Amino acid sequence: DAKTTQPPSMDCAEGRAANLPCNHSTISGNEYVYWYRQIHSQGPQYIIHGLKNNETNEMASLIITEDRKSSTLILPHATLRDTAVYYCIRRSRGANNLFFGTGTRLTVIP
Amino acid sequence: DGGITQSPKYLFRKEGQNVTLSCEQNLNHDAMYWYRQDPGQGLRLIYYSQIVNDFQKGDIAEGYSVSREKKESFPLTVTSAQKNPTAFYLCASSLSPSYEQYFGPGTRLTVT
Predict the structure, then answer these.
(1) What whole-number distance in Å separates Cα of residue B96 and Cα of residue A93?
(2) Contacting residues of A for B31, CB less than 8 Å apart
(3) How far is B26 from B59, CA to CA, in rounded Å?
(4) N or C end: fewer C-beta atoms under 10 angstroms in chain A?
(5) Do B42 and A99 make contact, defined as CB atoms within 8 angstroms?
(6) B81 contacts: CB under 8 Å, gap ≥ 6
């Protein structure tokens, strides 16, 4: 049970920012929000994770609302290679399992 | 070049045969995992190992077996007892269970 809600699909124009939303309204205080993506027939790729504060790395930014009930993954300048299924996952620290739901299929359009 | 390797990328077997999938990592990670992915679905945890010589069952361990004799290696055997073995198998590792998991490229197993 993934316990996160994501739109099934989104399109984004190449070069524009892609904003992928995730709802996790029942998240508990010790659960982190993780984002992975999976390009067709490849292993999932870790993108970023956070607990309360906004996070940024070389791939993306993660914005978590103050009440922690939702978050947004931002790819600042989407390229065609960013076309993939993006998964938002809740995970307790030290938990072994990653519950991948159905994710959001992002298509970057030339 | 550090990473996780899985071999082979595609594997074909006849029903009733056991088959072993390879997973090797040179990231010096303590924890390793095996997941299964079926078409259009999320990942399901088969087995995991937090340290050498120790492993635990995940959500769908029936019909599978693993070993963890070396830190770098975590092979998965799909036995003939696994009723629906055809799937995409993914191996992952993490520095420890508290850290993010990194995945290998996967092995697509087809049993006929």
Answers:
(1) 10
(2) 96
(3) 26
(4) N
(5) yes
(6) B62, B63
